[in-house]
Write a structure and sequence with these properties.
Blueprint lengths: L2 H12 L10 E2 L6 H11 L4 H4 L1 H5 L31 H11 L4 E11 L10 E9 L3 E2 L3 E13 L5 E14 L13 H4 L13 H8 L4 E5 L5 E2 L14 E5 L3 E10 L11 E8 L4 E5 L13 E10 L2 E8 L3
Antiparallel strand pairs: 1-3, 2-6, 3-5, 4-5, 5-6, 7-8, 7-9, 10-11, 10-13, 11-12, 13-14
This protein binds zinc ion.
């Protein structure tokens, strides 16, 4: 597009600002304790003001309230719900974008603001408005426009109880590069170094252990429970004392996934990422090597190896073994 074409295209986009995406959507269910309980289970939130009526009654709230971050959950459309009814500015906007090749979309970030705590019985409605569209931007993904959608959540009385700004990036995908598979053996020179692990006082021992060819697993100094990944406190007895034991490095593939996208220059394509259950009982994330990804199986016996990735980094990798 010429600069003039870009300008007139952006003017067309700006006309969508302030337009509504579908009719306001009424939540399928009012705020209710069973859903709050499931949410708290899933999030591991044990705050009793959400789930224990007695504790909630004795709190500043005088009764149960919903975790604020559940805001959007209350007006989720559900998997079987029909698409938004009425004039849908977003569908029209997507067509305008598609005319110029902006066919891909990615969610970027989301901000929520809470005006008050929700209580069981509150029945929410949300309304979505296209709030703002940015000028054309160049990003790592491609050229495109950021779109802020403003969600307004209201209660049964019409009072606004929360808002959410949901930001999307609508972009023109970069043309695919011709097959970038290096010839066997030639790849190593081309390959970028692996990202450095983030090392803290709590995790340093693990990475230093790898340099010495040791797979070190943390052991609680009080109840002796093993744990991985490393963390400062024992999740069983809350003790802050710990030491390490050296794992024999043998275990099984507990689960695995072959990562195809996004392609990362430091990794094989596809990148076989596996969760290994060590014979000592803890699980550890790693790669499986020496086997085609089609042949990786859950339950497969594996043995740790310590592979120098570059002069500064040695990583644990797991290779299938017979027993
Ligand atoms: Zn412990």
């Amino acid at each position: 597009m010429t600069e003039d074409e870009k300008e007139s295209f952006y003017a067309r986009l700006k006309e969508f600002e302030g337009r509504r995406v579908g009719e306001p959507f009424v939540a399928r269910d009012p705020v209710n304790v069973p859903m709050i309980r499931h949410w708290c289970d899933a999030m591991g939130d044990g705050n009793p003001v959400y789930t224990d009526p007695d504790a909630a009654a004795g709190s500043v709230f005088g009764g149960p309230v919903s975790p604020p971050s559940m805001l959007q959950a209350w007006t989720m459309r559900g998997l079987a719900a029909p698409p938004p009814s009425g004039s849908n500015a977003q569908a029209e906007l997507w067509e305008v974008f598609a005319e110029q090749g902006f066919t891909s979309v990615v969610a970027v970030n989301c901000d929520q603001e809470y005006m008050r705590y929700l209580r069981p019985g509150d029945h929410l409605t949300h309304e979505i408005v296209i709030d703002s569209i940015s000028p054309e931007k160049e990003t790592g993904l491609g050229t495109g426009h950021f779109i802020n959608q403003l969600y307004t959540f209201r209660d049964q009385g019409g009072e606004t109880v929360g808002t959410m700004t949901f930001r999307l990036f609508k972009f023109r995908p970069r043309p695919k590069k011709a097959a970038a598979k290096p010839a066997e053996g030639a790849g190593a020179k081309e390959r970028r170094p692996r990202p450095r692990p983030s090392m803290t006082r709590d995790t340093e021992h693990f990475w230093k252990g790898l340099e010495e060819g040791k797979l070190l697993v943390q052991r609680c100094g009080s109840c002796e429970t093993l744990r991985h990944p490393p963390e400062p406190m024992c999740p069983h007895c809350n003790s802050l004392d710990w030491d390490t034991v050296e794992s024999a490095g043998r275990g099984v593939v507990y689960s695995f996934v072959a990562v195809h996208h996004p392609p990362l220059p430091a990794f094989d394509q596809p990148n076989p990422v596996a969760l290994i259950e060590l014979d000592e009982g803890v699980r550890i994330v790693s790669n499986v090597i020496g086997v085609a990804k089609e042949d990786i199986e859950i339950g497969m016996r594996v043995q740790a190896e310590f592979v120098p990735m570059d002069p500064e980094l040695t990583l644990h990798q797991f290779r299938p073994v017979k027993d």
